Amino acid sequence: MRKINIFDTTLRDGEQSAGVNLNMSEKLEIARQLERLNVDIIEAGFPAASKGDFSSVQQIAGLIKNASVTGLARSVKSDIDAAWEALKGGAEPRLHVFIATSPIHRQYKLKLTADEVKETAVATVKYAVSKFPIVQWSAEDACRTELPYLAEIVEEVIQAGAHVINIPDTVGYISPKEYGAIFQYLREHVPSIHKVSLSAHCHDDLGMAIANSLAAVEHGATQVEGTINGIGERAGNAALEEFAVALQIRNDYYQAITNINLKEISRTSSLVSKLTGMPVPANKAVVGKNAFAHESGIHQDGVLKEKTTYEIISPELVGFQTNSMVLGKHSGRHAFKTRLDELGLTVHDDEVKSLFQVFKDLADRKKEMTDDDLAAIVLEEKLSKEQRFYDLISIQIQYGTNQVPTATVTLSGCNNELIQEAGTGAGSIEALYNTLEKSMEGNINLLDYRIQSVGAGRDALAQVYVKMRYAGHETSGRGLAQDVLEASAKAYLNAVNRVLYTEELQLKLVQQQSS
Ligand code: KIV
Ligand code: ZN
Description:
- By secondary structure, this protein is an alpha/beta fold.
- The chain has 3 domains: 2-276, Aldolase class I (TIM Barrel, Alpha-Beta Barrel); 333-385; 388-512, Alpha-isopropylmalate synthase LeuA, regulatory domain (Double Stranded RNA Binding Domain, 2-Layer Sandwich), CATH 3.30.160.270.
- It is 42% helix and 21% strand.
- An 8-stranded parallel beta barrel has the order 2-3-4-5-6-7-8-9, surrounded by 7 helices. Strands 13-14-15 form a 3-stranded antiparallel β-sheet. A 3-stranded antiparallel β-sheet has the order 16-17-18.
- The longest helix is centred in the C-terminal third of the chain and has 31 residues, at 484-514.
- The radius of gyration is 25 Å and the shape is globular.
- The relative contact order is 0.09.
- The mean pLDDT is 93.
- Bound molecules: 3-methyl-2-oxobutanoic acid and zinc ion.
- Zinc ion binds at residues 13, 168, 170, 201, 203, 237.
- The site of 3-methyl-2-oxobutanoic acid (KIV) has 10 residues, from strand 6 and strand 7.
């Protein structure tokens, strides 16, 4: 069996999804989970893009020990320098440098000739290998590049010292047969190709990202790039969980394996979905809610007689648990902490006390506490703690079918001052959000509002996601509570707090740099 390296770019290409903005603790939480999933390479971000990106790549590189951490760089020295500063403390620093090679990109975006692109690529790879032990070079929009030119530039960057050559289908345009043929062509026309590892990076604009990635493997790729749940630019990237499971289930055909710990798939998918606010469609392969549901009578009958009649993947293989109800109001702190450990939720000893209190308060009101509930409250408490500028003290909403909905809100403000406001709206949420807007400076435009239950039952927790524009930033937030209005208020404040937190972080970084 050939070993295929898994290069995860959830925190870089995935974070480029519209409406996704992860803060530092969320990125660290995802990186930890990717390490548990056993991916080979984590692309932690684009260090030159912003001070926040730099700092999160640096922290992830310092944290992760069992995967190689990489960062993206354009073909300019300052990007490579920034990436080196961010990654040099990592267990295996690796650079991912790219330049566009297709005629469309050369002419309209870069305004460079084919020769100039080649010279730039060679010069940047030479510079990169003087700093990094491992350099991956990507030909952006490779699939719309003239093949003889692609082969020439690939040969030259290999001679300049690149270790991995990535052939991205940047715009999700290629079909599996054609993508396989590109890999085949390069293997036949690039004299030094045996010195490097070949990588596939597919986008899903035509719904072919996984099929294309598998075709690349059939034609010599030994690395596949993608994201959890397939999030990413536009229609997203290849979904890594689908790729890993496809290789596992069809290794008879592909004769290739990955190091992915398949049992961590469900947990990773749900963490990424929660923190990015991007729901997993019910019918999504491998991780969708319905992926293992058998609805038709004929199918149910078959599965009862013999599972394999209609089930090619077992839910257990990818870590779905059938019985997840574990704790209740009589559970002690020890049982609580043990279950968190079993769920892979990293909680420091000094955090356990306050988390246990939140759990107890909720367990008093809620009959059953499932693993989903536990994961949701722990993530919510842990990850929003550091950025509470405005904090919710109380809300009161009055609603009646023939009354004007009214909200009264009490908050603690940025300097711990008490803020009280009242307001109205056409509905309860509008009254609440109008009142919250009045409580703080600046205009806020709500762009999206979504509500979802955590688990089932009337007493299920409500998870609210909002997207809004505040102080010139597009921001998103999430809120969790047993009551939908409280969850809505929390999501709103979380989105505002994220902007204030990012601004404060930027200010601190500038001050650190100038002192
Ligand atoms: O899709 C793409 O071309 C990319 C490159 C930066 C590798 O993400
Ligand atoms: Zn991409």
